[in-house]
Specification:
Number of helices: 12
Structural class: mainly alpha
Oligomer: single chain
Largest sheet: none
Strand content: under 5%
Helix content: over 70%
Distance between the termini: 19 Å
Length: 286
């Protein structure tokens, strides 16, 4: 059941690349993120009203960690994610996020002494190899202007790895919904100065009905449902095993792009996709 929920979470995340790419081509990324964060934080604030008894159970040392994952969540991860989509293609951003398992494993082993196995390392290596093949399949020119977007996406991916690891213990202690809700609210508060000092010209009349639906998707569905599923899975299994599912994102994103944007799928994509899925399976067995 956990793996089915993780597949659902990855489908939501992959759809986010497509939706957010269209959204940021029509309104500025800082504006899209503000309304995304405001929407999901408001929804979680309502949910937390029914869980307010848990606030008294939060240990003093954990408040700093809640603030930290809030910072990693919206002002860093989501801001860089949407900003990168303004500059590069959705599949490229999905490729960057597929490197999360490698980042998580390195961080977990280096700083948190998580045990690893040769089989788990092999699985991640196979999955990353498939990701590299996908990246080469789409083409990667270091001198291209979209490279800046790719770099922002990689930093966003790294921040998601830290968000995954630091939030795991909080989710295990306080629950996925409560932890995600606190992270969203702190994230919105910490994002407000960024939004204020990153001025953009826009008018509410410039945001179409379609844009509002897109904001609803990346807010309520992605940040609301998707993030909660992510932390719920972290309550049950190791961070490295959860994060390796990010390797599926390039496959799902490309498939969605095929049906929605009429992008072609070639033999290289099929080979790379098989490697990614094989890497996920090997890692789970590790």
């Amino acid at each position: 059941m956990i793996y089915i929920l993780l597949l659902l979470q990855q489908l939501i995340a992959s759809g986010t690349h497509i939706v957010a790419k269209t959204l940021t081509s029509e309104i500025p990324a800082p504006v899209a993120l503000f309304y995304r964060a405001l929407l999901v934080s408001s929804l979680y604030a309502i949910v937390l009203l029914f869980k307010r008894d848990k606030f008294n159970k939060i240990e003093r040392k954990d408040w700093l960690r809640f603030i930290l994952i809030g910072l990693l969540n919206i002002p860093i991860n989501q801001f860089l994610f949407l900003s990168s989509l303004e500059l590069t293609e959705a599949p490229n951003v999905a490729f960057a996020y597929s490197l999360v398992p490698a980042f998580v494993l390195i961080i977990s082993v280096s700083f948190f002494k998580e045990k690893t196995t040769k089989l788990k390392l092999l699985g991640i290596a196979v999955a990353v190899t498939g990701t590299v093949l996908l990246l080469l399949n789409k083409g990667f020119d270091i001198n291209n202007l979209s490279t800046k977007g790719d770099i922002l996406a990689l930093i966003a991916s790294l921040s998601w790895a830290f968000y995954t690891i630091l939030g795991k213990q909080l989710a295990e202690k306080y629950g996925a919904i409560f932890t995600t809700g606190i992270a969203m609210i702190f994230g919105l508060i910490l994002y407000l100065p960024v939004f204020h000092f990153h001025p953009v010209e826009y008018s509410l009349s410039d945001i179409s009905a379609k844009n509002w639906w897109q904001i609803f998707y990346i807010g309520a569905i992605t940040s609301g449902v998707g993030y909660t599923l992510w932390y719920y899975a972290l309550q049950k299994i190791e961070a490295s095993k959860v994060s390796v599912f990010n390797n599926i994102q390039p496959v799902l994103t490309t498939i969605l792009a095929f049906f929605i944007l009429d992008n072609a799928i070639n033999a290289n994509f099929v080979v790379a996709g098989v490697l990614i899925i094989a890497g996920v399976i090997i890692t789970q067995r590790g």
